[in-house]
């Protein structure tokens, strides 16, 4: 029997626990699930004591963020401390103006940090374009998840200012909220008024929570690690060199990316919500079958709900919402979506994507008086769905493509280089891809009551059935996995 080299084994473990920028810790990685399996029994042990539970989860969350973003964990700690100190200071003042100054101080600090890391090179590049300078990009690394936890930070401080919530008694409680690892790096954007009361109550997870959370994790893995990662291989070919593909191939790539981004992001959200549910926390719903929407307004009520509701409550309504006349409502819609687009990334393609969604929302609201007079019959619903789906899908091209010229080329190819005879050929050569897409479409358009019924069947099923479902999913992941674990699309935001 060969002797075990203990020093080497310890060295390997230490290396595994260190930050590696080439291999950030992801929900879809084996290392994360190994750590979570070790985490959950200790979490259950500490759950009866709120203080011990908070300390343990904060420590794990900070380690998780360190494995995802390295030394930027220090910045997360600093942000949480500044927010908490300002919020505690804020409640000592009765004067609204003094509290307002403190609120804006916190918001400006958070937005300044975000602006530097995310938008400094974007603004410098545009400035140099105007003055015809010789632009050299700054060597800036974007911290993972900064857009998500910055929005959480801002909403917390605003809610304390408006006295919707009381600030947490301890910094640790606030740090727990801001760094909660299931939602830390790619959302959902957690709201303090919904989350902190759950922390204070510290109720244990029920068996229904645990099995329901496990179901969501399984669904998330299917969406991300099986479907999204597989169909992305073809989609990436189309977007990497669109000039070499025909209209049919480009169309399939656009349709594929439309489904991929939904699968990728909603899959992450499902896993995050499922992990939190196993721990006894309800993060709410973040995606509600958005491609079933019959208009753009409905789409944004179903897509990335935590972001769209945040933009509504902390941007659209403060701008005046629909309270200041029709034209102002359209302008507010447009500005909200414009900023929402810029939130997604520091590039004009994201600004354009957000602006066009703002235009689409304004057009829909302007047409409402006419639309309400049209009978709500099946052909009308289908036409509304088709127009909405096409509009959303075409805008995803600008979101994904490298630049505007590639976006225009892809869309142009679809309309001017179409050959019907290539469709059977595509199905023949991309059979697995087509099956994946069909599976996803069926999953997406299944009535919600059917999905809820299926989840209930899983929750109530014997443990052997649960184990069998899990083993089948793991086997499918092994069968279809790529050489490297693909990062989630929204990690870059």
Task: Write a structural description.
- There is one protein chain.
- The chain has 493 residues and is mostly helical.
- It contains 21 helices and no strands.
- The chain has helices spanning 6-17, 30-46, 50-69, 73-90, 96-131, 146-161, 171-179, 181-184, 192-201, 207-240, 247-278, 296-302, 305-316, 326-344, 348-371, 378-400, 404-416, 422-429, 431-445, 448-460, 463-480.
- The relative contact order is 0.10.
Q: What is the succession of H and E elements? A: HHHHHHHHHHHHHHHHHHHHH
How big a fraction of the residues is strand?
under 5%
Question: CA-to-CA gap between the ends?
Answer: 50 Å
Query: How much helix, percentage-wise, in residues?
Result: over 70%
Computed structural class: mainly alpha
Average pLDDT, all residues? 87
The dominant shape is globular
SS element count, helices: 21
Q: What would you report as the Rg, rounded to the nearest angstrom?
A: 24 Å
Poorly predicted runs of 5 or more residues:
none
Largest sheet: none
Count of strand segments: 0
List the helices and strands and how they pair.
Layout lengths: L5 H12 L12 H17 L3 H20 L3 H18 L5 H36 L14 H16 L9 H9 L1 H4 L7 H10 L5 H34 L6 H32 L17 H7 L2 H12 L9 H19 L3 H24 L6 H23 L3 H13 L5 H8 L1 H15 L2 H13 L2 H18 L13
Helix pairs in contact: 2-3, 3-7, 4-5, 4-6, 4-7, 5-6, 10-11, 10-19, 10-20, 10-21, 11-16, 11-17, 13-14, 14-15, 15-16, 16-17
Briefly characterize the structure.
The chain has 493 residues and is an all-alpha fold. The chain has 21 helices and no strands. It is globular, with a radius of gyration of 24 Å.
């Amino acid at each position: 029997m060969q002797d075990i080299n203990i020093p080497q084994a310890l060295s390997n473990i230490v290396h595994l626990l260190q930050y590696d920028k080439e291999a950030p810790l992801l929900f879809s990685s084996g290392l994360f699930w190994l750590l979570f399996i070790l985490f959950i029994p200790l979490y259950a042990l500490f759950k009866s004591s709120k203080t011990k539970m908070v300390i343990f989860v904060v420590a794990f969350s900070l380690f998780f963020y360190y494995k995802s973003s390295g030394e930027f964990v220090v910045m997360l700690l600093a942000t949480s401390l500044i927010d908490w100190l300002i919020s505690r200071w804020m409640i000592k003042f009765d004067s609204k103006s003094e509290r307002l100054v403190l609120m804006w101080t916190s918001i400006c600090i958070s937005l300044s940090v975000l602006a530097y890391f995310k938008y400094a090179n974007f603004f410098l590049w545009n400035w140099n374009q105007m003055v015809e300078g010789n632009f050299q990009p700054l060597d800036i690394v974007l911290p993972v998840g900064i857009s998500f936890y910055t929005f959480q930070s801002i909403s917390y401080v605003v809610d304390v200012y408006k006295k919707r919530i009381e600030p947490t008694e301890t910094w640790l409680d606030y740090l727990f909220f801001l760094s909660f690892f299931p939602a830390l790096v790619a959302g959902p954007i957690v709201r303090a008024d919904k989350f902190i009361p759950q922390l204070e109550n510290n109720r244990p997870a029920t068996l229904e929570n645990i099995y329901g959370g496990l179901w969501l994790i399984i669904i998330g893995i299917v969406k991300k690690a099986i479907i999204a990662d597989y169909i992305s291989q073809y989609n990436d070919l189309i977007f990497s060199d669109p000039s070499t593909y025909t209209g049919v191939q480009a169309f399939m790539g656009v349709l594929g990316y439309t489904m991929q981004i939904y699968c990728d992001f909603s899959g992450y959200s499902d896993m995050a919500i499922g992990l939190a549910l196993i721990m006894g926390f309800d993060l709410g719903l973040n995606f509600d079958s958005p491609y079933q929407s019959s208009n753009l307004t409905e789409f944004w009520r179903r897509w990335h709900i935590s972001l769209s509701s945040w933009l509504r409550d902390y941007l659209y309504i403060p701008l005046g919402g629909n309270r200041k006349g029709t034209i102002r409502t359209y302008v507010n819609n447009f500005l909200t979506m414009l900023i929402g687009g810029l939130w997604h990334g520091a590039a004009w393609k994201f600004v354009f994507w957000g602006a066009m969604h703002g235009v689409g929302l304004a057009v829909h609201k302007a047409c409402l008086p006419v639309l309400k007079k049209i009978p709500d019959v099946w052909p009308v619903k289908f036409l509304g769905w088709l127009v909405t789906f096409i509009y959303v899908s075409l805008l995803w091209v600008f979101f994904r493509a490298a630049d505007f010229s590639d976006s225009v080329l892809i869309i142009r190819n679809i309309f001017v280089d179409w050959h019907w005879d290539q469709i059977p050929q595509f199905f023949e050569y991309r059979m697995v891809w087509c099956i994946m897409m069909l599976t996803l479409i069926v999953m997406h358009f299944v009535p919600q009551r059917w999905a809820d019924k299926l989840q209930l069947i899983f929750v109530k099923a014997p443990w052997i059935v649960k184990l069998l479902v899990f083993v089948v999913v793991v086997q499918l992941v092994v069968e279809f996995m790529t050489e490297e674990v693909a990062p989630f699309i929204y990690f870059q935001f």
